[in-house]
Amino acid sequence: MPKMKTHSGSKKRFKVTGSGKLMKQQAGLRHNLEVKSAKRKARLGKDQVLAKADSKVIKKLLGL
Description:
alpha+beta
């Protein structure tokens, strides 16, 4: 049986915390930034915990 390869795209987009949760970058900080408030941009700039339903699939892609 060959070794399972990790998904290169997922490696770049998600990181695993010490407790095993997956973190992701939030969407909405790429363009139209002058319209958005500083408070909103600060919130969007922080990492977010991935939903439990999605984390099972992503963990498989990462080989965890």
